[in-house]
C-alpha cells in the first residue's frame, strides 16, 4: 500500500497556501494603515465590480452563510466603507460602496496585486494560466 503523504494532499496545500497569502496580504494592508482584513477586502471588490449587490448574492459568491456576510457588512458599514439600503423586499439589503470604500478598493487592489505577483513569481506566464485554469476547474467541481 502506498504511503499517504498528508503534506502532498490538495487540501493541505490549498489551505496552507491560502493561509500564507492571507498573512502576507494582511501584513501589506497593515503597512498601508487602514484597518481592513483580506476577507473584508474581498467583499469590497465584489461590490465594486457590480456597483451594488444584495447580501444573498455576496454570501453565494463567497460560499458563506448570510449571517457571516451580514457581520462582515456590519463591520464595513461601521468603518463607513459601504452603504446599506433596503431593496425591493424589506428583508433584503442592497450594498454599495461609499466614496471612502471606493478609495480603499483602489489602494488595496494594488497591494493585493503586488502580493499575488510576488507569490506567483516562480511561475512562467503559461504556468500561471494553467494554475488558474486548474484551480477554477477544481472549485467548480467541488461547489
Automatic annotation (TrEMBL):
Q: Which GO terms describe its biological process?
A: response to stress
* Pfam annotation, one family: MarR
Q: Which Gene3D superfamilies match?
A: Winged helix-like DNA-binding domain superfamily/Winged helix DNA-binding domain (1.10.10.10)
Q: Which SMART domains match?
A: HTH_MARR
Recorded GO terms, molecular function?
Answer: DNA binding; DNA-binding transcription factor activity
Top-level taxon of the source organism: Bacteria
Report what the protein is called: MarR family transcriptional regulator
Report the source organism.
Aureibaculum marinum
Amino acid at each position: 500500500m502506498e504511503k499517504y503523504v498528508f503534506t502532498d494532499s490538495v487540501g493541505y496545500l490549498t489551505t496552507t497556501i491560502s493561509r500564507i497569502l492571507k498573512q502576507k496580504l494582511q501584513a501589506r494592508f497593515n503597512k498601508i494603515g487602514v484597518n481592513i482584513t483580506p476577507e473584508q477586502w474581498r467583499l469590497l471588490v465584489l461590490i465594486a465590480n457590480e456597483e451594488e449587490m444584495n447580501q444573498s448574492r455576496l454570501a453565494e459568491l463567497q460560499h458563506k452563510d448570510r449571517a457571516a456576510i451580514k457581520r462582515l457588512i456590519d463591520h464595513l458599514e461601521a468603518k463607513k466603507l459601504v452603504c446599506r439600503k433596503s431593496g425591493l423586499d424589506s428583508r433584503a439589503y442592497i450594498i454599495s460602496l461609499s466614496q471612502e470604500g471606493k478609495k480603499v478598493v483602489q489602494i488595496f487592489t494594488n497591494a493585493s496585486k503586488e502580493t499575488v505577483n510576488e507569490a506567483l513569481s516562480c511561475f512562467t506566464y503559461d504556468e500561471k494560466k494553467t494554475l488558474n485554469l486548474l484551480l477554477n476547474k477544481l472549485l467548480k467541481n467541488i461547489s
